Amino acid sequence: MIEGVRASSLGTQPIGEVARVADGVHQLKLPVPLPLRFVSVYLIEGSDGWTLVDAGFDYPPTYEAWNQAAATLGIDLAEDVERIVVTHFHPDHLGAARALQERSGAPVMMLEDEIEFSRRIWTRRDGPEPFIGHLVRHGMPCRTAVEASSALRSGLALPEALTTLRVGEKLPVGGGSVRVLHAPGHADHQLVLHDEARGVLYAADHVLLKITPNIGLWPENLPHPLARYLESLEGLRGLNVNLVLPGHGPVFHDLDGRINELERHHEERLELMRTVIEDESKTAFEVSAAVFRKDLSIYELCFALAETLAHLDYLELTGRAERIEDGKIVFRAV
Questions:
Q1: CATH assignment of the domain containing 218
Q2: pLDDT on residue 151
Q3: pLDDT tens per residue across span 159-180
Q4: Which of 141, 229, 290, 299 is the most exposed place for a label (fewest CB within 10 A)?
Q5: CA–CA separation, 31 vs 232, rounded Å?
Q6: Above 80 in pLDDT, residue 201?
Q7: Averaged pLDDT score across all residues of the chain
């Protein structure tokens, strides 16, 4: 995919450091023990305190970076935090929210359905077997599936109290307000925040530059995640946005241009996968092995499979493939 949208000169600080990206808005790059290397969280200054957008991964380097950023900006994390907005349930965004809440006493806010989903995922008691079974049915070898379940499905300590946000709600932030928008695909109940007056979009993992958000089909997903993602992308087109602040990768300015690129990427990926299953039916794991690079970690292997499944599901939804269940699940082009 040819990428024409350029990165901004803003937000180029090293991992672990904080930098101003707009008036009263600072980006902190928190390290994560994942291939992405860092997650970007945002600190927004207001007359009544600071709003934090996302929290980071629950491990010591996260808290070291928070402490350093607070010292740089003159923030007392125990006294000056007004609210913590978490965009979605993934551990690099939600993981440190409990510790930050315990320290600050500030409410942790998420979409209502994402609160329920987070509790179901991170406090589940049904054991690893359903997830392992899902992976094996889609072609992953059993031994690999057991390793994957251990790597991806460990628990996460949630904040004691979670406060509900609703789609369309306006939050007073930084002397103005941001509107809460639903942005499904990467997570069913992910939110993004739009500051229309200033033309800023806190884009979470919905619209990224240089990399594409992982749009995966997992056993707990609502149906057709890629279809819902593409629809939600179109819903952002034409918004008053001149600064996109993502959860990963560079800050950028051309939202509509990046939407165009992402739509082209997914259509190219769909056609590639359809070609793989054109002459012979294959499991999603076999398709992912043909489409993605070979040296994937166990974490990346699972996300590649989930992304492949989302695309094969979309091919079926749009009449370009059929799903056949006979023990294992395979897909064939039509």
A1: 3.60.15.10
A2: 78
A3: 999 999 999 999 999 889 999 9
A4: 141
A5: 29
A6: yes
A7: 95
Q: Are 119 and 158 in contact (CB under 8 A)?
A: yes
User: What's the one-letter identity of residue 153?
Assistant: R
1 pLDDT band, cuts 50/70/90, is very low
Assigned token pair, 157: 């300590």
Longest dimension (CA), the chain: 63
Please tell me the pTM assigned to this model: 0.96
Predicted local confidence at residue 239, as pLDDT: 96
Q: Is residue 223 part of a domain?
A: yes
Q: Name residue 210's amino acid.
A: K
Q: Could you give the C-alpha distances from 75 to 5, 71, 80, 106, 231, in angstroms and in order? A: 34, 6, 6, 14, 39
Q: Hey, what are 185's tokens?
A: 């695909």
Residue 95 lies in a domain: yes
Is 65 part of a structural domain of the chain?
Answer: yes
Domain extent, residue 28, equals 18-123+158-255
Number of structural domains found in the chain: 1
The order of strands in the sheet holding 328-333 is 282-283, 328-333, 321-326
Round to whole Å and give the CA distance between 17 and 39. 12
d(CA 177, CA 187): 24
Per-residue model confidence as pLDDT tens digits over 222-274: 999 999 999 999 999 999 999 999 999 999 999 999 999 999 999 999 999 99
Torsion of CA 7, 9, 15, 20, to 10 degrees: -130
Decide if 7 is inside a domain.
Answer: no
* Cβ pair 139, 328 in contact under 8 A: yes
